[in-house]
């Protein structure tokens, strides 16, 4: 029974998230942390699929997450009609990168977007263009979206190849940080107190969670402590950068819906946390 405890716990967390989503769908009350239920449920669905069925299938579920996120992002930026060839190339880079995650080919994964996709997009923009004005913006905007929503999110998939519970720990810790930030924003008025509490409030819970799950993640306690201190900072950095991106794109926090900024808002916590945690574990523990 104890041998199956990690799997049963994973299923229990997924079950609780599913109940919360159903309650939200059919109930009248709105959760303060509504927006975070969806992506957390989807990530845990990925973990369940990986554990019970196939790691390869779970990777392609994450590829769909990247696709939805990139599609939303492209719908919000002012891309020229002549850049459609570059957009096709951007979408094709998603299976290009996730294939290397599925095959655990780290060397190609790590250069797939920052080297090959980043080199492909400028020439595709040039081939598709008649007007040169706006070229720099188009290249930068498309590459920026690929980096955040494909490359950064892809690290969750590669972390999943190391251990389901390593990936689950990342998502659970990010969720705790997101909930703390959400509560502080809505209940604390003073700017300085809001900043400090957003950074410090999640630390005890994240620390306890990281240490409690250490036997399942197989991350030694000292590294669990270091990661627990790092993740709240990284999540806060993602939120801070994400707020500026949202403001520039005209996204209003009180009008977040899928396709109009909600996916960007949900995933911004992983922009820094996912790649940094992955590379920390790869450098020190793998």
- Tertiary shape: globular
Which structural class should the secondary elements be placed in? mainly alpha
| Helical content band | over 70%
Count of helical segments? Answer: 13
Question: Major beta sheet, specifics?
Answer: none
pLDDT average, as an integer?
87
Distance between the termini: 29 Å
Number of domains: 1
Instruction: Tally the beta strands.
Output: 0
User: Which regions contain 5 or more consecutive residues with pLDDT less than 50?
Assistant: none
Strand content: under 5%
H-E string = HHHHHHHHHHHHH
Rg over CA atoms, rounded to whole Å, is: 19 Å
The multimeric state of the shown protein is: single chain
Explain what you see:
By secondary structure, the chain is mostly helical. The protein has one domain (2-285). The protein contains 13 helices and no strands. Helix 3 (55-76) packs antiparallel against helix 6, helix 6 (135-162) crosses helix 13 and helix 7 (164-187) packs antiparallel against helix 8. The longest helix is centred in the last third of the chain and has 29 residues, at 221-249. It is globular, with a radius of gyration of 19 Å.
